[in-house]
Design a protein that fits this description.
The complex is a heterodimer. Chain A contains 15 helices and 22 strands. In chain A, helix 5 packs parallel to helix 8 and helix 5 packs across helix 13. Chain A is about 30% helix and about 25% strand. In chain A, helix 4 links the parallel strand 4 and strand 5. Chain A folds into four domains: about 120 residues, NAD(P)-binding Rossmann-like Domain (Rossmann fold); about 90 residues, Alpha-Beta Plaits (2-Layer Sandwich); about 120 residues, NAD(P)-binding Rossmann-like Domain (Rossmann fold); about 110 residues, 2-Layer Sandwich (Alpha-Beta Plaits). By secondary structure, chain A is α/β, with parallel strands linked by helices. Chain B is mainly α. Helix content of chain B is about 65%, strand content about 0%. In chain B, strands 1-2 form a two-stranded antiparallel ribbon. In chain B, helix 2 runs antiparallel to helix 3 and helix 6 packs across helix 7. Classes of the chains: A alpha/beta, B mainly alpha. The interface between A and B is medium-sized, with 18 and 12 residues.
């Protein structure tokens, strides 16, 4: 696939990085030739220097043959105009724009082909805010991801003794926690050297304290799933946010009703702006988040969740470590560099969140072929969970009309949940069936238009799963 | 130094226009053939003559005005027009001294409602019409002053703040041109006036009474054509109509204009000043109604609610109507009602006093200081309707409050010095500076300001002027810097 990426900033770089490894032809446009050169040296791609809204620059980047434009320059207006030019002049079929302003909504008339011609809007700030919002709602979880418009969730959680499932084998599940349908899709356990190892996950696997488990369940059951794996934590009531940038502001705005929020921001003018945007009981503090005295004075020891969201990875790590040392119950650091994120996960820092990873999940769904609705990177890109739609019929598809045990999945991959009905299928005039979430067994038969959620332990196996869900050539003609 | 002359030329023009306004009472006088017919013709002739002389003699000095001239213009206007307004009163009311006539006209023109005349019912109809009509004109002047002129001069914390801020309050600058803005506000004002007029008539007043009380309600003045004020009718329906329009006139008129433009009442509902105004007034009504019932002042709760509601609204909006001698109530109630009049109305309304927006800013400022003690690093500028209020504006609001306090104390001391008792002196000053009208004691609702000596009357007259022009616009004239070139 020919992909043009506009903007070699942090988001652009991460996008390029994850797409290059999937055998795409990537051209990156940026105004800074130096930056392009370093990127070219590191990754197998082509750089074109220039302003990406100019047709000549886009042409030089190969816009005539491009399949997709991903505009993630820093300014909204650049991205919007680039999509328009790509559509009008070069007819690039898929155009994705990163838009920070919440006023430009996906699917509005302004974004249609008459307007800016943007097929898909991505907003890293919004994705990160949603992710953190979930973690505040479910303080026990490490990660909560939604599939099939929120019907099913994948929950990552570290097991702690106290829950009814702990130290039992998976096949005992129905007796131990009746009424809750859930499916363990992966278990990671520390070996003697302290490295996480994937444990084979079948009916005989025993769940031990300290395990990091991935569970699929209907979204309304999340609470009960968490309760079965560990004793319930206190709900998050006091939150301290370090860094009042875009994400900090969005997050504070989102949780200011439920929690008591303290926000630390070094820039005075920004502080003043924040106070005008937030409720008056949010306390905006001017200062450095790594300032011990400040943290102590603001009673960081009583904080349920300390969230470091500055632009500086090192600051985020250090302030989280400091807060944890001083007694904050849990700490979350926003970390852009993947190496750092891997380094700190599971140490003193409870959760390391990588903003580019959360966006890339969204993006990958559009890049991938087949009917893939959503893709999420798990464990910072090592494993993936994807939601694919089963199209075609028994003849053209390799999944429709087949039992689970007849489908040949890559090693370790697992079909975790099926969402059936809820949407009118194409050409089907009958009444819409109510949506149901099925936890499949070996004899469950996949039907047309089912949304199938597949867990893939190794990233390179994703392609095989995608091929599996592609319909055969005869179906198209 | 020719600036005073240029201002005088403008004031002269205004005096000429003012003489035309006297045609309204003259029309009533001609229609009724009452005793004041001749006096109004004399007054119009004098006013017109003086106005023409003033403007013609100084015509050659006329030039583009500077902001500094604005202060002189505003103060001079509010000094001169009452003088001519007093003329027909002085001529037509037997035994009225010059001091008292000027006090009465100033009270009308500043929409205060304090009166020195007893036996109102016996006065010629046209004289009463003129007293009340000055309040309608005064109210109009106040709105234009508050929305258009004071911000231009850069005084008055609330107005300054509104001119500077972005966001919803920016709509204060309703149209790009000031003439347009003034026209819009007048339309709203006269629209409400017409409604009020018809409502009073419908509720049972005679046509002339409905007209006069419409004038004094919309200007939040409080003059009446009867000694008993609203006690003359003793009708719950008329009192309700008065309450509705007083509450309407206590709101920033610019908001009505915006609401009408947007075809939605949301802007009114969301304005925090309006919300605070209504909350404060309604909760005080509830509090005093319960208090009076418990104290046994009225036999039933319904009765005490009726009287409480009317008087709280009347005093809080700085109108000053009375239907009852509320001075007889336990002193807590009337004093609370008068204090409410110091700050309850919104900026940009026809009400007087500190204005709700300044009060909100001060409350937020105090709250902010308290938070700061506990969290030294906190950044919490005063935020009003999503805008940070600049320290510069806060300073001007605090300075206003200082001067307001100093004015109250200073004028009260003057009245005490002249021999008044404490309650009378203090409430008279509050009633005048906040343009409420009646006070307590010797100037209570059942009596009036007639008992004051000439000196005391002048002090009160000055108080009304100061309060109406929001202190700073007048006090700046007393600084040496202002007059230095």
């Amino acid at each position: 696939m020919n992909i043009i990426i506009l903007g070699a900033g942090r988001v652009g770089e991460s996008v390029a990085e994850s797409l290059v490894s999937e055998k795409n032809d990537i051209t990156v446009i940026d105004t800074d030739p130096q930056r392009l050169r370093t990127l070219q040296e590191r990754l197998d791609l082509r750089g074109v220097a220039g302003n990406g809204i100019q047709p000549s620059v886009l042409e030089a980047a190969g816009a005539r043959d491009a399949d997709m434009l991903i505009a993630c320059a820093s300014a909204d207006e650049t991205n919007l105009v680039a999509c328009k030019v790509a559509h009008e002049v070069f007819s690039i079929p898929t155009r994705i724009a990163r838009v920070r302003s919440p006023e430009f909504k996906r699917g509005s008339k302004l974004m249609g082909t008459e307007g800016f011609a943007v097929d898909e809007v991505i907003c890293p700030e919004e994705s990160v805010t949603t992710t953190i919002g979930k973690l505040i709602e479910y303080p026990e979880a490490l990660q909560v991801l939604e599939f099939a418009e929120g019907a099913v969730s994948l929950i990552a959680v570290r097991v702690v003794s106290g829950g009814p499932m702990v130290r039992h084998i998976i096949s005992e599940l129905p007796q131990l926690v009746p009424q809750v349908e859930m499916r363990f899709v992966a278990i990671y356990r520390k070996d003697d050297l302290g490295n996480d190892q994937r444990v084979v996950c079948d009916g005989t696997t025993r769940i031990e304290p300290g395990d990091e488990v991935f569970v699929l369940a209907a979204t309304q059951d999340i609470r009960r799933v968490l309760d079965s794996l560990r004793r319930r934590d206190q709900p998050v009531k006091r939150v301290m946010i370090a860094g009042g940038g875009r994400v900090g502001l969005r997050l504070a705005r989102q949780v200011q009703r439920e929690c008591r929020v303290k926000l630390i921001e070094p820039n005075l003018a920004r502080c003043e702006y924040l106070t005008t945007q937030l409720d008056s009981d949010v306390l905006v503090m001017q200062g450095d988040s790594t300032d011990e005295d400040l943290l102590e004075r603001e009673q960081v020891q009583d904080v349920d969740l300390f969230i470091a969201l500055t632009n500086d990875d090192e600051d985020n790590i250090m302030s989280c470590l400091l807060a944890k040392r001083m007694g904050a119950k849990r700490v979350l650091a926003l970390i852009n560099r993947r190496a750092y994120a891997d380094l700190v996960q599971g140490t003193q820092i409870d959760i390391a969140l990588s903003p580019s990873q959360t966006v890339i999940g969204e993006l990958l769904a559009y890049v991938r072929r087949g009917d893939v609705e959503a893709v999420y990177s798990l464990r910072r890109g090592a494993a993936e969970a994807l939601e694919a739609v089963a199209r075609g019929d028994h003849k053209t598809s390799r999944v429709v009309g087949r039992r689970i045990d007849q489908i040949t999945l890559p090693r370790g991959a697992m079909i975790g949940a099926i969402v059936r009905g809820g949407v009118a299928s194409e050409g089907d005039t009958g009444a819409v069936r109510p949506r149901q979430v099925i936890m499949p067994h070996h004899d469950t038969v996949i039907e047309r238009d089912d949304h199938v959620i597949v867990f893939v332990p190794r990233k390179r196996q994703v392609r095989e799963v995608e091929k599996l869900f592609q319909v055969g050539a005869t179906f198209l003609f | 130094m020719n600036s005073p002359l240029a201002v005088i030329a403008l004031v002269g023009r205004m005096v000429v226009l003012f003489s035309a306004l006297m045609l309204v009472p003259l029309a009533f006088a001609l229609f009724e053939h009452d005793a004041a017919e001749q006096h109004f013709i004399t007054a119009i002739a004098i006013t017109l003559g003086v106005g023409l002389v003033m403007s013609l003699a100084t015509r050659r000095f006329l030039r583009e005005l500077q902001p500094r001239d604005g202060f002189i213009l505003v103060t001079l206007t509010w000094l001169t027009l009452p003088a001519f307004g007093a003329l027909p009163l002085w001529l037509a009311v037997p035994g009225l001294s010059v001091t008292d006539a000027y006090f009465e006209a100033m009270s009308g023109f500043t929409a205060t409602g304090a009166t020195v005349i007893s036996g109102l019912d016996a006065l010629p109809l046209s004289v009463n019409v003129w007293r009340c009509f000055m309040m309608l004109v005064g109210g109009l002047g106040i709105i234009v002053l508050a929305v258009a002129i004071l911000p231009l001069l850069g005084v008055g914390g609330a107005q300054l703040f509104k001119a500077e801020s972005a966001g919803p309050l920016k709509d204060q600058k309703l149209t790009p041109r000031m003439a347009e803005t003034a026209r819009g506000l007048w339309t709203v004002y006269f629209g409400f006036s017409l409604l009020c007029f018809l409502a009073y008539r419908w509720a049972g007043m005679s046509w002339p009474d409905a007209f006069m009380h419409m004038c004094t309600t919309m200007g939040l003045g409080g003059f009446s054509s009867h000694d008993l004020s609203f006690g003359y009718w003793n009708s719950p329906l008329i009192e309700s109509v008065a309450m509705v329009f007083m509450m309407l006139a206590g709101v920033n008129f610019a908001l009505y204009f915006v609401a009408w433009r947007q075809r939605s009442l949301r802007v009114l509902w969301q304005d925090i000043e309006v919300r605070a105004f209504y909350t404060v007034v309604l909760s005080t009504v509830a509090l005093i109604a319960v208090y009076l019932t418990v104290q046994g002042v009225y036999p039933s709760f319904a009765q005490s609610l009726r009287h409480t509601a009317f008087h709280v609204v009347s005093l809080a909006t700085t109108t000053g109507y009375a239907s009852h001698d509320y001075a007889q109530w336990p002193v807590f109630a009337p004093l609370l009602m008068i204090l409410l009049g110091c700050f309850a109305t919104c900026a940009g309304s026809t009400g007087g006093g500190i204005k709700m927006v300044r009060m909100l800013l001060l409350l937020k400022q105090s709250q902010r200081e308290l938070v700061r003690i506990v969290h030294p690093n906190v950044v919490n500028p005063v935020v009003l309707a999503g805008n940070a209020v600049s320290p510069r504006v806060m300073q001007s609001v605090i300075a206003f409050m200082m001067m307001y306090g100093a004015t109250l104390v200073g004028l009260t001391m003057l009245l005490l010095f002249s021999g008044l008792d404490v309650v009378t002196a203090f409430t008279a000053v509050i009633a005048c500076v906040n343009n409420i009208g009646p006070g307590l004691g010797e100037v209570g609702p059942a009596v009036n300001f007639a008992s004051l000596t000439d000196f005391q009357t002048w002090v009160c007259t000055f108080g009304m002027l100061l309060g109406r022009l929001e202190l700073l616009a007048v006090l700046v004239l007393f600084t040496p810097q202002f007059w230095r070139n």
